[in-house]
Amino acid sequence: MVRNRLTVLYDSVGELNENVDQNSTHLLLKGSEKGVTVQERWIIPRTGGHDDQSSSRITWRGNNPLSDCSQSVIEPILNHGLNVYNDVDASAKGIFVKTPVYKVLHLDKMESQITDYLPSDVDLTFMEWKWESCTYDIKTTNDTIEIVEYSKLYENKTLAITKNDLYDKMEAGIFYIDSVDEEDINLSGLRCLWKDDADNELDKCIKTTLFYKPAYFHDIHLEGKVNVTLEVPTGLHPKVLIDLTELSSAENCEYFMFSQLPTQLFVDMFQSDPVLLFGETGLELPDYKVKDSTWGSEVLFNLVPGETNEITLHSRYLQPSENTSYGIIPLSLRIFKGCDTDSEDVMENPFYTKNFGLESYFTSNTVLHTLSEENLVVPIPKATMENYNKIQYTTAICLLLSLLYLSFKLFLKTTKHT
């Protein structure tokens, strides 16, 4: 049977009291102007025996405004697009990039169903996937599949919560942020349970308080202090300028930029000095020669606070097109600060665990502070078919003339000697 847990996070006790009501079977919740975070978790047991002890993680985060909201204190860091993470030694279908800590498949869009990468022994027909408005964090082990869905409940919207007949156990936590700092988060609110009867009646709602140490932190007070731009003109070697002049160094902390580069862009590891670089790094191959064998690369750069950091990317030659002389390439960047702590408690809390993803590149007691997320657009010059044909003809003529000239010079030289 399926276990279900729903968590709703309001900003204050006043907002919670104003927007939460209940009857004998339902909790009735109202949203707010900036959006109330809703996390719903399903834990589904796997059937039969499985010899494969590997685990996997699948995440989805769209580029639309509803799924691009600021990270709340009950959310992990999720990269944009679809990301499928597997153990390094696990077998997997699809085009994966291998790193020392996992294998990853990244897609900017939902080009295939997320269920294509989930075990086939679990019936997920009860799920109503909401790709346009929700983000997902899915973990698979030998025994269970855990699906976590994040959404926002906005003003003039309501949410009615009750127990579904499909669920063996149902509980809901309605919280508000009591206090928060970089070391501890305190949530207070209600924990509600439903009876195991045919009427699905609410059993009780009891006051509760949760203390935990965050593994991820969204530094709202630093918003606007990190400026990320592309140097203009862009050309074939785009330069990303990351302005950290308003930030200073902090004890036990370092600044970083992380990106999952598409095949059209790459980092020259001999020119730049990335901390980590995995995936397609071939310097000479055009995009249409590599896109069928890889999705791109993952790169992590160390940044220096107090100055503007310059990161040079390189673009591949693009397939000529009929009507445009530029390819428009999306580029997602995450600017963050990683800080070592003395506590192993950041590994787990009631809402998420650190498993695969960006956090795998750091020690288990590292807290990641998001400073800025940027979705840039990189224009890359490319030939049109009209120009492409002209270039081919011109090149062929130049080669022919060069051969004729060399042949003439050789013939003339031979004639003089004779």
Please give a structural write-up.
This is Protein PBN1. The protein has three helices and 25 strands. The mean pLDDT is 86. The chain has two domains: 213 residues, no CATH class; 164 residues, Immunoglobulin-like. The strands form five sheets. An eleven-stranded mixed sheet has the order 7-8-6-5-9-10-4-1-12-13-14. A six-stranded mixed sheet has the order 15-25-24-18-21-20, with no helix packed on it. It is mainly β and 418 residues long.
What layout of secondary structure does this protein have?
Blueprint: E1 2-10, H1 13-19, E2 20-22, E3 27-30, E4 36-45, E5 56-61, E6 81-86, E7 97-98, E8 103-107, E9 135-140, E10 144-153, E11 158-161, E12 167-180, E13 185-194, E14 202-212, E15 216-218, E16 227-230, E17 239-243, E18 253-262, E19 265-266, E20 276-279, H2 287-290, E21 296-303, E22 308-312, E23 314-315, E24 326-340, E25 366-381, H3 385-417
Parallel strand pairs: 1-12, 15-25
Antiparallel strand pairs: 1-4, 2-3, 3-11, 4-10, 5-6, 5-9, 6-8, 7-8, 9-10, 12-13, 13-14, 16-17, 17-22, 18-21, 18-24, 19-23, 20-21, 24-25
Tell me the count of domains.
Answer: 2
Mean pLDDT across every amino acid position: 86
- Residue share in helix: 10-25%
| Terminus-to-terminus distance | 97 Å
Q: What form results from the Cα inertia axes?
A: elongated
Strand order of the largest sheet: 7-8-6-5-9-10-4-1-12-13-14
Quaternary: single chain
DSSP helical segment count: 3
Secondary-structure element series = EHEEEEEEEEEEEEEEEEEEEHEEEEEH
Q: Can you count the beta strands?
A: 25
Biggest sheet, open or closed, and with what strands and sense? 11 strands, mixed
**Derived structural class:** mainly beta
Radius of gyration: 27 Å
